[in-house]
Specification:
Helices cover 8% and strands 42% of the residues. The strands form two sheets. Strands 1, 3, 4, 6, 9, 10, 11 and 13 form an eight-stranded antiparallel sheet that branches. Strands 2-5-12-7-8 form a five-stranded antiparallel sheet, with no helix packed on it. β10 and β11 form a beta hairpin. It is globular and about 35 Å long.
């Protein structure tokens, strides 16, 4: 039993230490202890507790990074309730309004009425099939943006494989609260 547990823990640790995040150029955007460098937009009840920022009430809301990014690898640890609507917006062109028309929305939304662009998809750009489920556990969301190429990996499974789109070139990162309970524990970025 102990040997099996060691193997499982080792594999889990290895999956978090992907080559994109092994380099010393990683910047921690959120480490669970403070919101320096982030601005809240909207009226969700964002709060810090137990090494995470969370929200479970209010309307559509976002935590927006102070810096803008063009080409990068991003990794976020996210926990959502099964009924949550969340995600990460990248290359946002407007710091006060966030839609798939002015940013790329990497969705975490298990109960989206049309699951085509549910958890693991980039809304209106790259559908997901089959859609992974995020509700009720911690998940690792990895996003790569390199020029016009966008990729998404959700819990080690590639859900978007190098889709090409040129609509949005640069902008801040926005962490989304839309419904349910949403928690972000760590957000890291490696500009490339």
């Amino acid at each position: 039993m102990t040997d099996r547990r060691t193997v499982i823990l080792g594999l889990a640790a290895a999956s978090l230490a992907t080559p994109a995040f092994a380099a010393s150029t990683v910047k921690v955007l959120f480490d669970g202890t403070g919101l320096d460098g982030w601005t809240a937009v909207g009226d969700a009840n964002w709060s810090l507790a137990d090494g995470a920022v969370s929200a479970d009430k209010g309307g559509m809301s976002f935590l927006v990074s102070g810096d803008s990014y063009r080409d990068f690898d991003l990794r976020a640890a996210i926990w959502v309730s099964p009924d949550a609507n969340s995600g990460v917006f990248i290359r946002c062109s407007d710091r006060t309004r966030f839609t798939p028309a002015n940013a790329y929305e990497v969705n975490v939304f298990d109960q989206r009425p049309d699951p085509t662009y549910g958890t693991g998809a980039i809304v209106d750009i790259a559908p997901v099939s089959p859609m992974p489920k995020a509700g009720g556990r911690w998940n690792v969301l990895e996003i790569s943006a390199r020029g016009p190429l966008l990729s998404v990996v959700f819990n080690g499974v590639k859900t978007v494989d190098s889709v090409r789109d040129t609509a949005h070139a640069e902008g801040p990162i926005a962490l989304q609260y839309g419904a349910g309970t949403v928690k972000f524990r760590r957000v890291e970025i490696r500009p490339v």
